[in-house]
């Protein structure tokens, strides 16, 4: 079996000392990565003071039966654009199955379905995304900055609080981030 060089369906964990405060302790669910570039949704931090009910109200969608939930900081690109990472038991007009691990939807139909209780059984909402151009993430992966990990997507996305995902990701990889240097080595 050949191993893909692409990271779709994996998680990126920001290494200590990544050098960009926007990504400090970030956990990114990689939704797409190929020769044309990459797109991921941040799942390691929520936006203070913003809940799902606020987002639904701004979109003129009645919250219906859905409980209020935190909204995640998906990344620094297009921070007003929303995404829903969710279980595969629901699909809409633009739903992307991510390597059989989870699904990504970015249109209002998923939020409407969640609000009335007919959407996916498990989900999280994010604003913004992290994006890389062709070859950009591949180059970043050769330098100090990111650790890619495979893991139990169901657990990481829906079973672990956002604030704990970074440390849980390192633990799943068998790495204690407290023991990592904040600088890359040089020869």
Automatic annotation (TrEMBL):
A Pfam short name: DUF179
Gene3D superfamilies (alphabetical): VC0467-like (3.40.1740.10)
Gene Ontology cellular-component terms listed: cytosol
InterPro entries with a match to the protein in the record: AlgH-like
HAMAP family referenced in this protein's UniProt entry, alphabetically: UPF0301 (MF_00758)
Family per similarity comment: Belongs to the UPF0301 (AlgH) family.
Entry protein name: UPF0301 protein COA07_02925
Species this protein is from: Sphingomonas adhaesiva
């Amino acid at each position: 079996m050949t191993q893909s060089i692409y990271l779709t369906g994996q998680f990126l964990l920001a290494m200590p000392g990544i050098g960009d405060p926007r990504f400090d302790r970030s956990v990114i669910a990689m939704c797409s990565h190929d020769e044309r570039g990459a797109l991921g949704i941040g799942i390691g931090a929520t936006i203070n003071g913003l809940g799902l009910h606020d987002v639904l109200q701004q979109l003129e969608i009645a919250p219906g039966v859905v409980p209020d939930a935190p909204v995640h900081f998906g990344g620094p690109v297009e921070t007003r654009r929303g995404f829903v990472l969710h279980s595969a038991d629901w699909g809409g007009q633009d739903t992307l199955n991510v390597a059989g691990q989870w699904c990504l939807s970015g249109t209002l139909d998923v939020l409407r379905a969640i609000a009335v209780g007919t959407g996916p059984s498990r989900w999280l909402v994010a604003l913004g995304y992290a994006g890389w151009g062709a070859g950009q993430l591949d180059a970043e992966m050769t330098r100090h900055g990111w650790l890619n990990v495979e893991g139990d997507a169901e657990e990481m996305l829906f079973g672990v609080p956002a604030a704990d995902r970074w440390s849980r990701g390192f633990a799943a990889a068998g790495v204690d981030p407290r023991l990592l240097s904040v600088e890359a080595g040089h020869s």
